[in-house]
Amino acid sequence: MNPFRRQSDGEVVEALRRTERWRRPVGLAFIVLGLVLLAFHVWGEAWMRRKALQIADALSELSETHRPLPADIRDASAATAYAVGFRSGLLLSQGVVIGAIFVITGVRLRFGGRKDRLLIQQFDLATNGQLSREG
């Protein structure tokens, strides 16, 4: 295949048709994947927050019912809560960004390509018009 050879109009339109066949299903898949990813990260953030609060409650109950906790355990619980909160915030923002990229790309694939569809339609009309005039 010579990359410097100019393609005919029929070859260009066939390439556009091949692209249009996979555009819409892939766009829909990207939209669904982006929404699932977004929902998963929101759920994961809520789950991590709930677990961090459970750890903090357990440590506060332990310190109230028994002797006071050593200072290193109190410091570790604060650091653990901070680390869990920081990690869940990073995962949530990462999930939102990646999910938004998937959704936006999916919308562009699913609903975009108007120029390509119009070009295919006009080509079909032009070639069908020529065939009907000749025959």
Range of strand content: under 5%
Span between termini: 34 Å
Number of strand elements: 0
Mean pLDDT: 82
Secondary structure category = mainly alpha
Order of helices and strands: HHH
Commentary on this structure:
With 135 residues, this protein is an all-alpha fold. It has one domain. The protein is 88% helix and 0% strand. The protein contains 3 helices and no strands. The protein has helices at 9-65, 71-111, 114-134. Helix 1 runs antiparallel to helix 2 and helix 1 (9-65) packs antiparallel against helix 3. The protein starts with 8 loop residues before the first helix and ends with a helix. The mean pLDDT is 82.
Notable features of this structure?
single chain
In short:
With 135 residues, the chain is mostly helical.
Topology of this structure?
Blueprint (H helix, E strand, L loop, with lengths): L8 H57 L5 H41 L2 H21 L1
Helix pairs in contact: 1-2, 1-3
